[in-house]
Structure formats: C-alpha cells, structure tokens
Design goal:
heterodimer; A: alpha/beta; Nucleotidyltransferase, domain 5; 3 domains; 9 helices; 32% helix; B: Rossmann fold; Rossmann fold; four-stranded parallel β-sheet; globular
Chain lengths: 333, 390
C-alpha cells in the first residue's frame, strides 16, 4: 500500500514556460514538470497538472497548500484555487535561499525577462528586472538557435567547445544579430560565435541590471537559460567567481511559490485548491472593451460552465472579480 | 490674439492643475475648455502625431490639445521655461505639429514670472480686458491659495489611504473634498473650505493601529503629477497599505522659488542634501530627485520610488547616481521607466516585489507575508462612470 503524504503544489506560469512542482513538508521536490506555455496559460496549467499526476502516479499525496507565481499568477490562482499568489521575484529569491541558505546573488534569466536579486542574510535587499531590452533574455537565444539551425538544447555544448569567443555586440538584439551574421560570413567558427553570443548576453545582463550593486558569492544562476552551460561559463568568466546552477534550476519559481504555500502552515482541508479535476473543466476566456469612459479598457472574462469565474483588466477596478478563491495574504507574525 | 471675449482657452492636463486653472480663468472671465480626462485615446492621438523620440509627456500634451480643439477651444496656453531639458521646446514643437495638422488657434507661451514681469503681465492682460497689474496680482494670490489647498488634499489622501478600512473610500472622499473646495470663492471661503474638505479625508474609516510602510516618490514632475501617465501608481501602491509622500506638487512646481510649501522642504535644503552626490543643476528635476531621496532616507522612510519617462536625460543622470545614495543612506530605491505601453503587469510585479522587499527588511526575513491590507473588500473607485459592475 502506498503511504499517504503531505504535499505542497507550486505553479509558475511564465511567458515561455509553465512549471509545476510538488514539495513535501521539508521542501524536498517530489515531482517537477517543465513545459512550454505556448501562449495558452490555462491549457498549459491543465496539461501540466495531468503530466504531474502521471509522474506522481506511484505516490499518494494530499495537497495541503498551493502557490502561484509568474506573469500569469493571478489567472493561475483563479483556475487552480491558490492559497498564495506571489510575484516571481520573491518566489525566485525564496527558492534560491532554500537551496543555498547563505546565497548572496541570484541571476535568473527566463524567456521574456531577466532578474538580478541581491540577498544578505537570507533577506532580499535589492533587485532589478530588465524592462525594455530583449537582448538579455532567453527568447533571443531561442531566435538565434532557429536562425543557425542548431537546437537550443545543444547551444551549451557548442559554447563549451569554443576557446576564443567571437566579439558580439550585446547592447541590442538588432546589433547582436547583425554582428553575428558578419562574423559568420567572414568565416568564424559557429562554436566561437555561440560562445561569443553567451558572453554578449552575460555582459548585457550585467550592464543592465547590476548597476552599482555588489555581487557577492555564493552566486546562483537559475531560470530556463541556466540549462545552457555556455551561459554559466560566460558568467563565470565575466564575474570571475564560481556560479552555481541548482539541480532544479528550471523550476525554481514554482519551488519558491510552493515554499510560500508551505509557510502558510494551513490545516488539512483548509487549502483553496480545487483539485486535479480542474484539468477536465472547460474554461472559456473572452475579452470585451468597456465603453464606460474614454480609457476603453480591455477586460478579460473567464467562464467555466457558463458561470463567470473571474474578470479583470480595467484601469478603474469596477470589473474586478475573483470568486474569493484567492486569499492574497494570510496574517502571520 | 483674439479679443478677450472670444477666447476659449485650453491647457494640458497634469494632475489637479485643471482645478487651479478652472478657478483662475473663472476669475479672469475667460472661457476655459478643459480637455477630456487623459485616456488611452489621448495617448493614441499624441503618439500618432508626435516625433517617435519625443518623451511621453509631450505626446500626452498633444493628445490633450487635439481633444480640446475638437471640443471647441481656440486658444492654447502652454508653459514655457528653460531648464536644460526638452521641456523648454515642448510648446514650440506642439504648436508646429498642430498647425501642420490644419488647426486654427492662437498660441500663448507662458514664460515664468522670473523671466520678466512685464511679459508675464502682458500674457494675462491679453486674456482679460482692462486687467490691471494690481488685480492680476490679487487674483493670482487667491487662486494660488486655492491651488495649494487642492494640493494639500491630495497629499493627505496619499497618507490616509494606507490606513483606510474599506478600499477605495479615500479616493471617494478626495473626490467629494475637491468638489467642496472648488465651490469656494473668497479668501475666507477658501480657508474654511480647505479645513472642511481636509476633514472629509480625515474622516475616512481608518485602522490607525495598522503597521504600514512609508515610501517616498521622486522623479520627473509630469510622471509624478499625472496619474494617467503612471498607471495610477499612487492608488495602486496605497492600496497595498503603503503610506506615501511625494516630492513634487503642482503649486510647488509652478512657484519653485518658494519654499516647496506642499512638500514642506525648502528648495535650498533639497539642493544642499543633493550636493554630496550632485552639486549642480542637470535640468528637469535631476538634482531634486537626489536631494529628496536623501531627505526621505533621513526621515526614516522604508524606500523610495523614482518615476521617469523613457529617455528623460535629467532623470537618467539621477538614476545613475541613485545607487550611491542608496548605499550611503541604506535605503532601497526602485526606478520605474514609463513610455507608451498600456499593460501595467510589469509595473505591478515590480511594485509587489519592492513592497515584499521593504517588509522583509523590516522583519529581517524574506519569507514573510505582509499584513492583511490586501484582504479589504474592493469597492468601485471609477470616477467617470458610476455603473455598478454586474
């Protein structure tokens, strides 16, 4: 007979990837899923939950709490019934401190944004998030891998085989691309171009985010781009320190949100979790333009079985509706 | 210029500036055509007709003008001035664009009083037949007193919102208070209405024992003053239970050589505080941003948020200096850059993370959940349409 265990579900729905984890009460990973969002966050969450159920088929886990994070955190919170909805900066910091308790610097590069988080004694003291620049994110690497015809998974190996990275302009993805094409047309090795690209990305990241911040060791590198060993090598070369890539680097946001749910310390049955059955429900989303004033806000409506589950998007708040399933905060001393 | 009785004047929107102007133009007997409240439509019009590299405030100004001209305005009044930033050219560029678009109007560039008292007087004299210097002075004095009272209301609302029991009540009280004050005419009436309207804001149901964070807002004046341009940031962060103070106010900005009556700290002191980091004027509010950040830090605020339009030179200078201030005075600073984007999710994520960070610093640990400010029941704070959501 399977032993019934307590678990905490963490879901991180980002622009590019959707990650789910289940932790036990000591915050160890029982199961983890990493999949693409493909522009359909609700579907991604539902499919992700199905995959997670499959992965965990040999275990009997009772979900005691659920946390949601990522840019679709509010949507996710409504769909699954989250106990805590938290921004991804805090979630990533929490997860990093769990893996390396005395971590001082967290480098995180995802699909559409990158973050730098500074901690001291386990407390986030500073952070930066890129806002206007695509050159410092995973999407740009993705785009270049398609252009070069080399799968993104192999980018790291190519970069590791280089011993003299080509200089690629890193300030702007447009300059970077034209620089890469130039190097390629004059006959530079593809390995050197790829490693050069990693350097450009690392430089861009550090220039944009680390302004005046003291980057102390231990340094953790997480997010989808940490899969690229070339990026780790480039960061180590640029920073001159050892960079640690945690085992679950790709699902750290989800781990962080599960830890936050765990910390709520809910009683059995107290969770708002709607159960794994939400994978079978048919969620309909629609948008309409509110003509109440000249702001003409686009309001999103999510319905399930003809009933409106949630609504948001207006500037004024009159359409805001969440069926009480998301307890945004819980008071704790 | 048209004869005064045919003038239908308009100006750009900037926070509560229209309340002050409504009063002033009323006293001068000039018909004031207020542009519709700045909206996505305004921004779209501005973007369509502005140079791509112009900063955000110019684009919103231009949208305001187009909408006001469509509403029947025939005279545009725009502030001039000359800090070494692009603002000094706004009026000239805006006038040219509007003429190219085929609009017929008179354009009035209001240069600051310090640039020449006579020119200043002449601008107003062209609006109001037989206006004596003495009457202009008296009119400005009483209108300005009212303007300061309007600023005081918003300043108080920023503080009270952090403690409000029911979300949205402070914003509603502010609306009522502004209506009440707007009706006051004589100096004595204004004084009485100022007290009474302030009382309306004070009487919002509050939980004074609630622990709140204190955050100061600094940066470029238009972004600070005009809620449309900053996604109603003050309301948003106030709703998270944060007590706010801001370093620029409309009346402080119009009369900068006074003592920053609303912010409460003399310009000289702000400059003195900035001096160890930045000892000269870099245009716009660059130096004030630095000095005010130091003041907030010295007063024990938990953090500072800097707002700037993308590409703003003076604020970019300040941004690059702020890390030093942050280090020296041990105060977290969040810089937010605004442009044409209409999605505010990115800003919300940063604000939420910043508030988490500030709580963590207070508590000494990161995994801590802020007090239950977010659990309050929301009510409709919509200002224009009173339709209840279904």
């Amino acid at each position: 007979m399977k032993e019934r265990r307590t678990g905490y579900l963490g879901i991180d729905v980002g622009s590019v990837s959707t990650n789910l984890v289940i932790l036990d009460e000591r915050a160890s990973v029982l199961g983890a899923i990493y999949r693409r969002t493909q522009g359909q966050p609700i579907r991604a969450v539902q499919e992700g939950l199905k995959e997670l159920t499959a992965v965990m088929a040999d275990q009997d886990v009772e979900i005691r709490g659920v946390g949601a994070t990522g840019s679709a955190r509010h949507l996710t919170g409504v769909i699954v019934g989250a106990d805590i909805v938290k921004n991804e900066i805090t979630a990533h910091a929490v997860a990093a401190s769990q893996v390396i308790p005395d971590v001082n610097t967290v480098l995180e590069i995802g699909g559409q944004d990158s973050k730098l988080i500074i901690l001291r004694d386990g407390v986030v003291t500073d952070f930066a998030m890129n806002s206007v620049c695509a050159a410092g994110t995973g999407s740009f690497l993705d785009h270049q891998s398609t252009r070069l015809g080399i799968p993104i998974e192999e980018f790291g190996d190519y970069a590791l085989r280089s011993d003299s990275p080509a200089h690629i302009a890193g300030r702007c993805s447009v300059f970077a691309e034209s620089d890469m094409i130039h190097k390629q047309q004059v006959g530079a090795r593809v390995e050197d171009i790829i490693y050069g690209l990693c350097h450009a990305l690392a430089r861009n990241y550090l220039n944009n985010l680390s302004k005046g911040k003291e980057l102390l060791e231990p340094t953790v590198f997480q997010g989808g781009v940490a899969a690229n060993a070339g990026m780790k090598r480039a960061f180590e070369a640029e920073l001159g320190v050892e960079v640690v890539v945690p085992a679950y680097y790709h699902v750290m946001g989800a781990i962080g949100s599960a830890i936050l749910a765990l910390e709520l310390d809910l009683e059995p049955g107290e969770t708002s979790f709607k159960g794994f059955e939400v994978t079978d429900l048919n969620y309909e989303t629609s948008t309409f333009i509110c003509d109440g004033c000249s702001n003409t806000c686009e309001v999103v409506r999510i319905k399930v079985g003809g009933k409106t589950l949630a609504r948001w998007g207006g500037r004024c708040g009159k359409w805001e509706l969440q069926d009480g399933t998301v307890r945004k905060t819980k008071v704790k001393a | 210029m048209r004869p005064p009785d045919q003038i239908r004047i308009t100006t750009p929107h900037m926070g509560n500036l229209h309340l002050l102007l409504d009063d002033l133009f009323g006293r001068l007997g000039v018909e004031y055509i207020k542009p519709p409240r700045s909206s996505t439509k305004t921004l779209q019009l501005g973007i369509k007709h502005s140079p791509e590299f112009a900063c955000l405030p110019l684009k919103i100004n231009l949208g305001n003008f187009i909408q006001a001209l469509e509403k029947g305005a025939n005279t545009i009044a725009m502030a001039g001035g000359h800090g070494p930033c692009r603002f000094g050219y706004y009026g000239i560029v805006e006038e040219r664009i509007l003429r190219d678009l085929g609009y017929e109007f008179d354009f009035m560039m209001l240069e600051p009083f310090s640039d020449g008292a006579w020119a200043f007087y002449k601008s107003f004299a062209s609006l109001s037949a037989g206006l004596s210097i003495r009457r202009l002075w008296k009119t400005l004095k009483v209108s300005f007193a009212k303007g300061r009272a309007f600023d005081q209301l918003r300043k108080r609302a920023l503080m009270v919102r952090a403690y409000e029991k029911n979300r949205g009540h402070t914003s509603r009280a502010l609306e009522e208070a502004e209506k009440l004050l707007a009706a006051a005419v004589t100096a004595a009436e204004i004084e009485a209405a100022a007290r009474e309207s302030l009382g309306l804001i004070e009487s919002v149901d509050q939980e004074r024992e609630r622990e709140v964070l204190k955050v100061g807002i600094v940066g470029e004046f238009f972004l600070l003053l005009e809620p449309f341009s900053n996604f109603d940031l003050e309301e948003l962060i106030g709703d998270m239970g944060v007590y706010l103070e801001r370093c620029v106010w409309v009346t402080d900005w119009i009369a900068p050589h006074r003592d920053n009556k609303i912010f409460g700290f003399p310009k000289g002191l702000i400059e003195e505080k900035a001096a160890p980091f930045l000892s000269h004027n870099v245009g716009g509010e660059g130096r004030e941003t630095i000095g005010s950040t130091v003041l907030f830090a010295e007063r024990g605020f938990d953090g500072v948020i800097q707002l700037l339009p993308f590409g703003c030179m003076p604020e970019n200078i300040a941004t690059s200096i702020l890390p030093k201030v942050q280090q020296k005075h041990d105060i977290p600073v969040l810089t937010l850059t605004f442009d044409e984007q209409t999605g505010r999710a990115g800003m919300v994520t940063r604000l939420e993370a910043f508030v988490d960070l500030l709580w963590a610093r207070r508590r000494g640990r990161t995994v801590s959940t802020p007090p239950d400010a977010l659990n309050r029941e929301p009510v409709s704070p919509c200002h224009e349409c009173k339709v209840k959501a279904v």
